[in-house]
Amino acid sequence: MYYICTMKTLYFLFFLIIFSSCSQYRTYQQILKSENIEFQIEKAYEYYNSSDYARAIELFEILLPLYKGSSQAEDIYYHYIYCNYYMNDYISTSYHAKNFISKFVLSTKKEELSFLSSYCYYLDSPRFTLDQDNTLQAISELEKFINNFPHSDSLNVVNNLIFELNEKLQKKNFKIVSSYYDRGEFKAAIFAIDNFLSEYPETNFIEESRYIQVKSYFELGKNSIPEKKEQRVKEAIFACNDYLISFPNSVFIEEVNSIYQKLKILENGL
């Protein structure tokens, strides 16, 4: 008996939900088709305030051309932009935020939407393993915000976002340069790491980069032809000494010491 009652309750709730959804759909369609634009704008804000952005944005799209040039146009467009943002459409958000700034040049919301536009570029930046063109664009947009609003209260946030994006670029580039060693391209690894550290002198990957460079010098020297072996072994020993002086507390210190000892054996045998 309990099972039968439970099933009846579930069926009732199911049909109640279906009926409610159909009723809401019919109501929404009536709003869309209404010729009363004041009623439509009231409902658009109502949907927006209840976080129903999918319905709100459709109504705002209808209303935007109807209110063009009016005193309400700015606020309608403002809420339309945020509908895009809350629906995670960052490309559209950024586009319309920039368009808003060009249309409403005297708006008090210019700084807010300029930040939003830049922030959307940040949100659109992919993980470090993918192409980083969007990340570079995001940094550029955030720097433009700093230049345009040098006294903004958001500067600390923007600078932190730029720092985070730069960290991502560093991680991407570090993986690229370290991949030369993984592929056995030791000479290329040495030069790539020098370039990497020249571009990012304060990177968090400096210690690991230099460690990979030491290993590359070692492998290059160890496997060189006789005519080049002596010079390359000396270069590898120099790289080891430089590493041991620069990073005395490195987690790689034992490995570098081991490489150094092997190089001294090679040097003595030449």
Features:
single chain, 270 residues, mainly alpha, Serine Threonine Protein Phosphatase 5, Tetratricopeptide repeat, 12 helices, 0% strand
Notes on the protein architecture:
79% of the residues lie in helices and 0% in strands. The protein is mainly alpha-helical and 270 residues long. Among the domains are: 17-87; 184-270, Tetratricopeptide repeat domain (Serine Threonine Protein Phosphatase 5, Tetratricopeptide repeat). Helix 6 (110-123) packs antiparallel against helix 7 and helix 9 runs antiparallel to helix 10. The longest helix is centred in the N-terminal third of the chain and has 32 residues, at 2-33. The radius of gyration is 31 Å and the shape is elongated. 30% of the residues are buried. The model is unreliable at 8-22 (pLDDT under 50).
Q: Can you describe this structure in just a few lines?
A:
This protein has helices at residues 2-33, 37-49, 53-66, 73-86, 90-103, 110-123, 133-148, 155-182, 186-199, 206-222, 226-246, 253-268. It has 270 residues and is an all-alpha fold. Among the domains are: 17-87; 184-270, Tetratricopeptide repeat domain (Serine Threonine Protein Phosphatase 5, Tetratricopeptide repeat), CATH 1.25.40.10.
